[in-house]
Amino acid sequence: MRYNRLGTTGLFVSELCLGTMTFGGGEGMWRNIGALQQEEAEALIRTSLDAGVNFLDTADVYAEGLSERITGQAIRNLGLKREEIVVATKGFGQTADGPNGRGAARYRLIDAVKASLDRLQLDHVDLYQIHGFDEGTPVEETIRALETIVDHGHARYVGVSNWAAWQIVKALGIADRLGFSRLASLQAYYTVAGRDLEREIVPMLEAEGVGLMVWSPLAGGFLSGKYSRDDDKPEGSRRAAFDFPPVDKDRGFAVIDAMRPIADAHGVSVAQVAIAWLLHQHVVSSVIIGAKRPEQLADNLAAADLVLSVDELAALDAASRLAPEYPGWMFERQGAFRRDLARQRPRGA
C-alpha cells in the first residue's frame, strides 16, 4: 500500500480508502446499495487496515446516518488508535425537514458537523467535505462556515465533492483572499469508462494543488466484469435496482473488452484492472472502494499490487480516451510549439 499527500497538505492517505456507503442499509436506495450491520462492517474495516488502508470515508446521509454510527462504533470496538486513522465525512444532503434541512449554508453546516461527530463518537474528523454544490448559498458563506469548523477544532482539513472546476477555483480564490483554509481535496466520479473530469477538473486540480479522491471506481459495479452486452443489468446486481452512475454502455463495453485480456494476462479480475488504472493516474490521491462481501473487498484491495505496463495503459487509453471538444482541440492546435518548448529538458539534465 502506498501513501499519497492529500493535495498540498502534510496529510498522507493510503492510495485506497474504505468507503462506508454499504454500512447500515436503512430504507430506499440505501438498502439497495448495502445493508451491512456492525459485525460485518467491523470485519471489512479490520481487513482494510490490515492491508495498509489508513483512510475511512463516510457521509451524514449514508443510510440516513447509520453509516456514521456504525463507523464510529467500529473505531471503538476495534480499539483503533485515533492518531493512526484518517476519518472523512461529508455534509450537504437532506437530514432534516424544511428548506434548511440540506445545503451548504452556515445555518446548516455548523450543526451538521456537530451531528456527524456525535454519530461518529469523535471530537474531530480529519477531513470535512461539502457533498455537493449549493446554488442557493454564496460560495463565500460556505467557505466562511468551513473556516469556523476548522477554528472550532471540528475538522483538520476541508474539501468538496461533486463541484465543477470553476466553482472550486472561485472557492480557492475566496479562501486565499481571506487567509482561510484552502480546499484540500475534491471527491469526484472518475473511471476508465468515465473520464469526463479530464477536460476541465484534472488540469485545475494539478494547477491548484488540490487532491483527488475517486468515488465509484467501478462505475456502480459496471466495471466489475459481471456485465455484458447481452445482460447489462443482471438480476440481483446493484445496477438492476439502482442504475447509477450513468454510463455510456457502448463505450463502457468497449473498455471492458480492452480490460479482459489484460486481466487474463495477470490472472486478476476486471475490477482490479479498473482500479489499478486509476492508481496509475498521477492526479489521484486515493481511490474509494466499497464492498458488501469480504471476498469483494479482498479483490479490490489486491488492485494496489497490480502494475500495468506501458503497452497495457496505452491499450486502455485508446479504448477510453475522450473525443476532442472545443476549446481543447484549439489548445492542441495553437499551443503545441510553446508547450513542447516549455517541456524541453536543460542540456545535461
Q: How would you characterize this protein structure?
A:
With 349 residues, the chain is α/β, with parallel strands linked by helices. The protein has one domain (3-342): Alpha-Beta Barrel (TIM Barrel), CATH 3.20.20.100. Helices cover 42% and strands 14% of the residues. The strands form two sheets. It has an eight-stranded parallel beta barrel, surrounded by five helices. It has a two-stranded antiparallel sheet with strand order 1-2. α7 links the parallel β8 and β9. The radius of gyration is 20 Å and the shape is globular.
| CATH architectural type | Alpha-Beta Barrel
CATH topology: TIM Barrel
Secondary structure tally: strands: 10
Strand order of the largest sheet: 3-4-5-6-7-8-9-10
**What is the 3D form?**
globular
Strand proportion: 5-15%
Ranges where pLDDT stays below 50 over 5 or more residues in a row are none
Q: Could you give a quick summary of the protein structure above?
A:
Helices cover 42% and strands 14% of the residues.
List keywords for this structure.
single chain; 349 residues; alpha/beta; TIM Barrel; two-stranded antiparallel ribbon; 13 helices
Secondary-structure topology with pairs:
Elements: E1 3-5, E2 12-14, E3 16-19, H1 29-33, H2 38-50, E4 55-57, H3 66-77, E5 86-91, H4 106-120, E6 125-130, H5 139-151, E7 155-161, H6 165-178, E8 183-189, H7 201-208, E9 211-215, H8 238-241, H9 249-266, H10 270-279, E10 284-289, H11 294-301, H12 310-320, H13 328-342
Parallel strand pairs: 3-4, 3-10, 4-5, 5-6, 6-7, 7-8, 8-9, 9-10
Antiparallel strand pairs: 1-2
Helix pairs in contact: 2-3, 2-11, 3-4, 4-5, 5-6, 9-10, 9-12
